[in-house]
Design goal:
The complex is a heterodimer of chains A (380) and B (135). Chain A is α/β, with parallel strands linked by helices. Chain A is 33% helix and 18% strand. Chain A has one domain: Peroxisomal Thiolase, Chain A, domain 1 (3-Layer(aba) Sandwich). Chain B is mainly beta and 135 residues long. In chain B, a hairpin with a 4-residue loop joins strand 5 and strand 6. Classes of the chains: A alpha/beta (380), B mainly beta (135).
Chain lengths: 380, 135
């Protein structure tokens, strides 16, 4: 996309996060969408573009009363919303629509009217992974990590440190689900889920939603909130089968998506003030830091261990507490985007003083997909 | 004891030869006659050069343990803890499997340990390619 041409003018999460048995999946989308519309000073009739995942765009458009001239139902897992931002930017610039609403809602914990995701026995997953006892993300997303640890000599203690540092950030965020500080020993004595992953290395399962509203940077000046500009975008996909990921120590989708976003924006890594890396499990920030180019291969665990990404460090990472401690409904990418927007607006709970550039990197479907958005509160 | 039954695959026209092979005790891969790339999972064209000129080939059944997790929770047809593994075949492709014939512990399951295929019959149609420590 063309940098600085599109801005976020509305952003909000659901009124509540956590356990919300009183709202179905579709109403979580709507609650977030209505909050984002209020944030932007808009009504549904002002919106002419819709993008969503989990529900179909026609379902959400009809439910909210939107008549779109552009719709995007890209659904590649938890980073779908990063791809929606990228596609919406292109659509607005091409004149397909003017004002895009992107919604997410997921009753991940309470399971009220959720979309079923069965592994069909004739699908690639159904034939070549399901028969071996995989049971969702904790047994699929995690399979590459022993190879990564052996290749670079990374220890379980170092992986546990990712969870410890993110809990420190969560402790500064009143909306975080888990705020009590934890130690490496706490992580390594917590219940084993899928060796080497213990429960404190795995994301939460909660209910919630979020929504974004995008328009042209030109129009963005007329909205009540200070615009947050989109200065770089990237996306890619790799394999629906974790067993077919080409390199177990590095994600091709991460590398392709991250490079594209950095190339578009023309920023350098040293320019980045704030970073979000989707952390469904504790190894993901390690892969993300390396595949985005912030660390050399094998050096991310040492980087996190040095407190570089912790409060007071030079590269604040997952400042809402992340999927490990803030919330994780299933498709967490929307909450990473929300935190980047809050940081660029200067209103985050754990605000990074003077932050001007935020990189937000998402993963979808066990390393199957990736999306990267670079935001700034100034045109760069 | 394991409760329930493990999910079984439903072969498709493009994968039938693989499942026929497993039933006959053969691990079948495909090889491209144009670029010589050997690949898995099955499809009637080469994912490297897009040629449709491909053939089915019998693999040696030799592999190395590439990575794994040891699942500690219940899953239909499994008795936890059990390892879910990815092995690298001698011919190059990787596949998901279970490791049998050894304890399901980090001490027994060392990365790069040599393995060989063994087939476990599920019903008259489906046998699964599992791996055991090489003798």
């Amino acid at each position: 996309m063309k940098p600085n041409t599109i801005a976020v003018v509305g952003a909000a999460e659901t009124t509540d996060l956590g356990v919300i048995p009183g709202l179905s999946q579709i109403q979580l989308h709507a609650d977030a969408a209505l909050n984002a519309m209020q944030d932007a000073g808009l009504k549904a009739t002002d919106i002419d573009g819709i993008a969503t995942a989990g529900e179909t765009p026609n379902t959400i458009a009809h439910y909210l009363g939107i008549t779109p001239t552009w719709a995007d139902g890209t659904s590649v897992g938890g980073c779908s919303f990063m791809l929606h931002v990228r596609h919406a930017a292109a659509a607005i610039n091409e004149g397909l629509c003017n004002t895009v609403l992107i919604t997410h809602g997921e009753s991940g914990k309470s399971r009220v009217a959720v979309t079923p995701r069965p592994p069909f026995p004739g699908s690639l997953t159904g034939q070549f992974e399901a028969p071996f006892g995989v049971a969702g993300p904790p047994t699929q997303f995690t399979i590459p990590v022993l190879r990564y640890m052996k290749t670079y000599g990374i220890t379980e203690e170092q992986i546990a440190m990712v969870s410890v540092v993110q809990r420190e950030w969560a402790g500064r965020n009143p909306r975080a689900t888990f705020k009590t500080p934890i130690t490496v020993a706490d992580v390594l004595s917590s219940r084993m889920i899928a060796y080497p992953f213990r429960i404190l290395m795995c994301c939460l399962v909660t209910d919630g939603g979020g929504a974004l509203i995008l328009t042209s940077a030109e129009r963005a000046q007329d909205f009540p909130r200070k615009p947050v500009y989109i200065v770089g975008t990237g996306e890619s996909v790799e394999s629906p089968l974790i067993s077919q990921m080409a390199d177990f120590t590095s994600s091709r989708a991460f590398r392709v998506s991250g490079k594209k976003a950095f190339d578009e924006s023309c920023i350098k890594h040293g320019d980045v003030d704030h970073l979000m890396i989707y952390d469904a499990f504790a190894h993901l920030p390690l892969y993300g830091l390396e595949d985005l180019g912030f660390c050399k291969p094998g050096e991310a665990a040492g980087f996190i261990g040095s407190r570089a990404t912790a409060p007071g460090g030079k590269l604040p990472l997952n400042t809402n507490g992340g999927g490990l401690s803030y919330m994780h409904s299933g498709m967490y990418g929307m909450y990473a985007l929300q935190e980047s927007v809050r940081q660029m607006r200067g209103i985050a709970a754990a605000q990074v003083e003077g932050a001007k550039i935020s990189v937000c990197h998402g993963v979808g479907g066990m390393f199957a997909a990736s999306g990267t958005i670079i935001f700034s509160n100034e045109k760069i | 004891m394991a409760e329930g039954k493990r999910p079984l695959p439903q072969p498709t026209p493009e994968t039938q030869h693989f499942w026929d092979g497993a039933r006959a005790g053969e691990l079948r891969l495909q090889v491209c006659n144009d670029c010589r790339h050997t690949y898995f999972p099955p499809r009637p064209f080469c994912p490297k050069c897009s040629s449709r000129n491909v053939a089915v080939t019998r693999a040696s059944g030799k592999a190395k343990l590439h990575s794994y997790v040891i699942h500690h929770r219940q899953a239909p047809g499994f008795d936890p803890p059990y390892a879910i593994a990815v092995v690298e075949l001698a011919e190059g492709p990787r596949m998901m499997t279970n490791i049998v014939g050894c304890p399901q512990t980090p001490e027994a399951l060392q990365l790069d340990m040599p393995l060989e295929v063994t087939f476990e019959k599920q019903n008259d149609e489906i046998s699964l390619a599992l791996f055991k420590p090489a003798t």
